[in-house]
Amino acid sequence: MVEFRIDRRSGVATYLQIVHQVRQALRLGLLTPGDKLPTAKEVVAATAINPNTVLKAYRELDREGLVEARPGLGTFVRRSLARPETADGAPLRAELADWTRRARAAGLDREDVAALITAVLEDSFGEHPQDVHDGQEGNA
Amino acid sequence: MTDLTFRPGRTALEAVGLEVRHRRRPALNDCSFRLPAGRVCALVGPNGAGKSTLLAAAAGLHKPAGGTLRVLGGTPGGRDVRPRVGYLAQDKPLYPNLTVADTLRMGGTLNPGRWDEAAAQRLVRAGDLDDGARVGSLSGGQRTRLALALVFAKRPELLLLDEPMADLDPLARHAMTAALMAEAAEHATTVVLASHVVSELEEACDYLLLVSGGRVRLAGETEDLLAAHRVVVGRHEGPGAPREFAPHTVVESRTTGRQLTALIRPDGELTGRWETSEPSLEELVLAHLRSPEAPVLLAPSAEPRAAAPAKAREAA
C-alpha cells in the first residue's frame, strides 16, 4: 500500500501528483504487480481531496497500462516500473555511488552534485519535459 | 469503487429565474443554474451575496418569490424531498441543554430509517466529545463537529453546508473535510459547501457556483471553468484595452506602469506577445468579484434543463 502526499503549493495538478507518486512507487518497488491501490475513499479520508481527483488519477494510470480496475474489488497494479539496473548492488548503481563518493571527496556538496547531475542528464536526454497540465503556456 | 461519483444526467439542484426575497428585500434575483448529482460544489461569493439565502431556499426555508427551484427533482422542503436533504445553517442550531448523547438520540428519532448511528459515533469519538457534556458547554469547534455528525448520520443525498468549517482549527478542519470527502466517495452524496475562503475549497470541490449581488455569475466544473480562462501578462501602454483582446471576453484588466495583467475568456487564439497561464481558483473568483459587469458563464452541465425563459439568462 502507498500513501499519497498532496502538495497544494506545488502548482502541479493534484491528480498528476498522485500519478507521479504511483509511478515513483512502481520504480522503487514499493508497489509490485498484484498490489492493490488504496480505494478512493481511503485516499480522501487521509488527504481531504475530492474523490473524483483520485479516480481521475487511477484512470490515467489504467490508460497507461500500469494498473487495472477490477469492478467491485479495487484497482490493482499490472506491471512494475522497477528496473533491475537500479536495484541495490547493481553495477550501474554501484558505479554511481562510487562516483558520488569521489565528488564529495572533491569538496562538492549535495546541491553541487544535484546541479551537476541535472546538467549531465539534460545533455544526454534533453530538457526535462514539463508536465503537460501544469497550466503554463508560452504565447510569446 | 472505481466509478466517478457524479452522475451527469441526474440533477441535484436546478433554478430557473429564481427570485427569493429576504426581509422584504430581493436576496436572489433571476438566478439560473443546474447542479448535477454527485458533485462537491463550492458555493462562493462575498458576504451578503445570497449564498445563505440560496441554501436556505434549497432546504425549503424560503419560498421563491419568482421563478422555480427544484431539489432532487421535487419541491424544496417537500415531504418526499426533506428526508433526503441535510442542511446545516451557519449558526449550527443545537439545543444547549441537551447532552451530546441526547442530541444524537434525537437525531436518530427524527430520522427513522435513515440514521447511521455508527457514522455519528465515529465522528463524535474522533473529536473527544464527552457523551454526558451539555451542548451549551462545548467549544465552537466541538459544536461544529456534533452538528456535522448529526447531518452526516442522516445519510442525505444532498448536503447543504453553510460555512461549516469557519470556527474549526486547521487540524479539525482537515479532519472534517476528509470525513466529508469520504462520505461523498462512499455514497456519491452531492455536497454544496458555502464559504468565502476560496483556497480551502480548491482541493475538495469539483464544481463551482459563484454568487454575487444576488445572481449566479459562474457555474460549472471547476476544471472547465479554469480552462476557459487565461491570466494574461504583457507590456501595454496607452489608454484602453490592447487591440489583440478585441475578439475575447475581458473579465478584468489592470495596468501597473507598463505591465498589463488581465483575466480573459479566450475565443480562439490570442495574438501578440503575451505570457498566458491558467488561473488558480482564487484568481478566477476574485477577478469576477472585482468585475461585476463580466458576463455570466454557465458550463453546459450547469445550464438548466427545464424550459428556461430565454430572456432570464440574457438579462443576467
UniProtKB/TrEMBL annotation, chain A:
Domain of life, per lineage: Bacteria
Record carries keyword Transcription regulation: yes
Ranges for domain HTH gntR-type: 12-80
Alphabetized UniProt keyword annotations: DNA-binding, Transcription, Transcription regulation
InterPro entries: Tscrpt_reg_HTH_GntR (IPR000524), WH-like_DNA-bd_sf (IPR036388), WH_DNA-bd_sf (IPR036390)
Signal sequence residues: none
PROSITE patterns the record matches: HTH_GNTR (PS50949)
GO MF annotation: an example: DNA binding
One Pfam family named in its UniProt record: GntR
Name assigned to this protein: GntR family transcriptional regulator
Automatic annotation (TrEMBL), chain B:
The keyword Transferase belongs to this UniProt entry's keyword annotation: no
One Pfam family matching this protein: ABC_tran
Domain called ABC transporter: residue spans: 13-238
PROSITE patterns hit by this protein: ABC_TRANSPORTER_1 (PS00211), ABC_TRANSPORTER_2 (PS50893)
GO MF entries: ATP binding; ATP hydrolysis activity
Source species, domain of life: Bacteria
The entry's keywords: ATP-binding, Nucleotide-binding, Transport
Protein name as annotated: ABC-2 type transport system ATP-binding protein
Organism of this sequence: Streptomyces olivoverticillatus
Lineage: Bacteria, Bacillati, Actinomycetota, Actinomycetes, Kitasatosporales
